[in-house]
Amino acid sequence: MAKQELTKLQGAIAIASFSAGVLIAMVCLFFIEPLGEIASSAISIVSELLVLCGAILGVKASYDVKLRKFQAEIDQIIDYERKYEPKPNL
């Protein structure tokens, strides 16, 4: 149960990181009047790092979900084989 909660938390962090990266980029580009010159590289590096953080956490969460699904399928196969396994003759 703790792994599922951790995966949900990672998914939420990934979405928040992606949203923050997009929000910072949009605010810096369109809504803030610069006092001087803002280098486009400063804006892009912040947004790219936040998007990277979101991507890494998102891939981890996706991998965990697929791994749990695979484990559940294996457990089903094992239970089925145990249920219908031929009994040895004594």
Summarize, please.
The protein is mainly alpha-helical and 90 residues long.
List its salient traits.
mainly alpha; 90 residues
How would you characterize the overall build of this protein?
The protein is an all-alpha fold. It has one domain. It contains 2 helices and no strands. It has helices spanning 2-31, 40-83.
List the secondary-structure elements in sequence, H or E: HH
- Arithmetic mean pLDDT: 77
* DSSP, total strands: 0
How many domains comprise the coordinates? 1
Q: Can you tell me the residue ranges where pLDDT is under 50 for at least 5 consecutive residues? A: none
Q: Which class do the helix and strand fractions yield?
A: mainly alpha
* Gyration radius, in Å: 24 Å
**First CA to last CA: what distance?**
42 Å
The major sheet is characterized as: none
Classify the helix fraction into a percent range.
over 70%
Tally of individual helices: 2
What is the percentage of strand-forming residues? under 5%
- The coarse overall form would be rod-shaped
SSE blueprint and pairings:
Layout: H1 2-31, H2 40-83
Helix pairs in contact: 1-2
